[in-house]
Specification:
The complex is a heterodimer. By secondary structure, chain A is mainly beta. Chain A contains no helices and eleven strands. In chain B, 0% of the residues lie in helices and 59% in strands. Chain B has no helices and eleven strands. Classes of the chains: A mainly beta, B mainly beta. At the A-B interface, strand 4, strand 5 and strand 10 of A face strand 4, strand 5, strand 9 and strand 10 of B.
Chain lengths: 115, 111
């Protein structure tokens, strides 16, 4: 049963600490998306990659956020330093660009609380 | 700003009734999709309609698309308590791969 795997599922940290969230996309998928979901802002696209190359990270605060794909099986989203306003659920999704449909398969999310 | 805007924001109905959710968007699209999110979970793709299609069916789901009005609707027929979730429309722009999600409609189906 192919699925997108995100770790950790929950993270509680203190302001100023570094946070790293990981995502394993579905094997064979070549696009990866990072989203942030809050009650106030809804679902916001932070970054997306195609074939491991970043195509758009305009939605990501550049001063503290960074997203990478060290290899095809791992995507990371880092926040350094973290702030209370970063508290949200972060979702990773993957898909196949060749399908031209852009259907995305979501992980279960990482719920981040910054105290 | 978000591309897709759903209405209503929240909908409460009795089991067995039909639920209709609407979505409006702003720019040209390649396709429009609807996703569902159960509480505490990730989004799950439900159905996709291409820009040259007007209506699509999948089980109890019916989606319509009016590109002249830049709007879509999702109809869930004979709703069940298990349909309780948030429903999001998502648009994929022409010539791009970027998907933009709306704010979602929270559906509550009372048993």
């Amino acid at each position: 049963d192919a699925r997108v795997t995100q770790t950790p599922r929950h993270k509680v940290t203190e302001m100023g600490q570094e946070v790293t969230m990981r995502c394993q996309p579905i094997l064979g998928h070549n696009t990866v998306f990072w989203y942030r979901q809050t009650m106030m802002q809804g679902l916001e696209l932070l970054a997306y990659f195609r074939n491991r190359a970043p195509l758009d990270d305009s939605g990501m605060p550049k001063d503290r956020f960074s997203a990478e794909m060290p290899d095809a099986t791992l995507a990371t989203l880092k926040i350094q330093p973290s702030e209370p306003r970063d508290s949200a659920v972060y979702f990773c999704a993957s898909g196949l660009s060749q399908s031209a449909k852009n259907i995305q398969y979501f992980g279960a999310g990482t719920r981040l609380s910054v105290l | 700003s978000q591309q897709g805007e759903e209405d209503p924001q929240a909908l409460s109905i009795q089991e067995g009734e039909n639920a209709t959710m609407n979505c409006s968007y702003k720019t040209s699209i390649n396709n429009l999709q609807w996703y569902r999110q159960n509480s505490g979970r990730g989004l799950v793709h439900l159905i996709l309609i291409r820009s040259n299609e007007r209506e699509k069916h999948s089980g109890r789901l019916r989606v319509t698309l009016d590109t002249s009005k830049k709007s879509s609707s999702l109809l869930i027929t004979a709703s069940r308590a298990a349909d309780t979730a948030s429903y999001f429309c998502a648009t994929v722009n022409t010539g791009g791969f970027k998907t933009i999600f709306g704010a979602g409609t929270r559906l509550f189906v009372k048993a």
